[in-house]
Design brief:
Elements (H helix, E strand, L loop, with lengths): L5 E4 L6 E4 L6 H10 L6 E4 L4 E3 H17 L7 E5 L4 H12 L3 E4 L6 H11 L3 E4 L4 H10 L6 E4 H9 L15 E6 L9 E5 L1 H12 L9 E4 L6 H14 L2 E3 L7 H11 L3 E4 L1 H10 L12 E4 L6 H11 L3 E6 L6 E4 L12 E2 L4 E5 L5 E2 L6 E6 L6 E2 L3 H7 E2 L2 E10 L5 E6 L4 E3 L2 E3 L1 H9 L4 E10 L5 E9 L7 H14 L8 E4 L13 H5 L1
Parallel strand pairs: 3-12, 5-6, 5-7, 6-9, 7-8, 11-12, 11-13, 13-14, 14-15, 28-29
Antiparallel strand pairs: 1-2, 3-4, 9-10, 10-21, 15-16, 16-17, 18-19, 18-20, 20-23, 22-23, 23-24, 25-26, 27-28
Helix pairs in contact: 1-2, 2-3, 2-6, 4-5, 7-8, 10-11
Length: 522
Amino acid sequence: MPDNTVTVDRSVTPHRLVFSPRFNVAVPFIDRHVAEGRGDKVAIRTADEAVTYADLLRRVNRFGNALLSLGVRPGERFLMVVKDSPDFIALFFGAIKAGIVPVAVNTLLRAQDYTFLIDDSECAALAWSAGFDATVKPGLDAATHRPGEAMTAEALAERAAAAPDRLEAAPATALSDCFWLYSSGSTGNPKGVVHPHRSMVCTSERFATNTAHLRQTDSMFSVSKLFHSYGFGNAMTFPLWLGATTVLSDRKVTPDMAFEMIERFRPTIFFGVPTLYAQQLRAMESASPDLSSIRLCISAGEALPGDVLRRWMERTGTFILDGLGSTENLHVFIGNREDDWRYNTSGKPVSGYEVRLVDENDAEITEPEVIGTVWVKGESSARLYWKNPEKTAKTMRGEWLNTGDMYWRDAEGYYHNAGRGDDMLKVGALWCSPFEIEARLIEHPSVLEAAVVGRADDDRLTKPEAFVVLKNAGDASPALETALVEHCRAGLAHYKYPRWFHFVADLPKTATGKIQRFRLRE
């Protein structure tokens, strides 16, 4: 078997991935397309340029050589605070090809967050897009750890322009450490999630090829950014695995931005998040964007409310494939399919992954409609959390990964979201999912978004409390609160209705669109 190759054995179900003993994942994702005759095809489109696969290979090689010329050694970490751009992709794969471990982090953080990331990763080099000077530079100045090299991505690109455009792939195996992503850190400092070379192959083949049925002829646009595991797959690994085209933008995500990008670049696949789909539906009440190029939409990050899916399909005629994924598992491992889906569910396990629900004693739950914690087993699982053996032991259970997500499985095998373990409510001694209440609230014609948390009443008993964003802020009134209570009681178990309502302008979210319920609880 040639070095740096992977074959897919389709004679078995699930298909078996066979990696060569020497395997550097940059080769099948970058070099392969030129070798197979796709060098002139556009790999990346932005507002400013179109980068072919041959162009991308040269950039990857130059960036890899530039990092090595700076003295960064194979196995050391390279911290990236880089905007979505062709250089992000070239830097990322250039590091991997050179044997260096790229660590892509959130570009929307504060200076103190970058101080933590620099110290925690113990990076040998740091590069940031010049637009982030105001946060990265103070973060670097305050760090205890001093990277050997620290410069803007633009300065590094100038150095790379003079570097050789040929680079031999560093020796590695499918299980060697390849890259890190940091978890969102919505409840504390983020954790360094260490992935091996095979992870991005697994998600690209299992989800992109076999579940979403993405194609080499597709053009893909994702609103989720490259530093996040969802956008990482959507806008980088999926198109590069298939030899397709990705459309990148570093602009702030809004409904108008998404509409403009779709109308200008005419992608066939659109990756969004539930919050944005709801906002786009609201915007389409007074606008008619041309979305005719889209053949499939995909959603993750949080569970997609059934009412949003129903209204999107009615308004656009396109399906939104929703699924459950995680940074630790890199992308979606439970998902709906165009030919097999249900409203208000995350679907069924993606082929190639095993999923089970466990109770508080880690015993498997086999009966339907019982809430448990999702454990998943698959080849895209992270190896460990960097410098966090306690959390690693709690999460990585042998071949299984404890996701912390609470779900229940119906009699037909579809998985229903019940929230994170720390978001679950016990009302009247019965478990109650905030997502279930939120999904019901969103079905009301006056409601745009909703978030539900637990609050102690006068008897110190936990009851649901709702924070609601209305389509029209002027509709807020005691009468609407009463109507929302009746709306919930008509569609949910009798105890699953909010006792308190707060009509708010917006909800606190992470950079990737997840509602930060802990901030509402505070």
